[in-house]
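Sample entry (99 residues):
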Amino acid sequence: MVNVPKTRRTFCKKCKKHQPHKVTQYKKGKDSLYVQGKRRYDRKQSGYGGQSKPIFRKKKYSVDCREELKFLENVSSVTSGTKLKAFDKIYQSNMVADV
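Predicted structure, serialized as tokens:
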């Protein structure tokens, strides 16, 4: 379990100075049904013949928990990729002075 603060003071490219950023866990977006690989896979799966491609079952132990940094007043966001086994947000008063 890795304890990560809810807010972190990091550099904002727009303001050109360090600002408090909100830390959220990165979530994968919904897969599109119309990308070329999905269309090809669906075409191959249709009809008789069973499962045409291997289904991956050996998931790696460490999960890619990227933390997404969003500036509190602006819309701009920065993502930093870190691989963690678990992701837990905590409040640390010594990390952020006045948020």
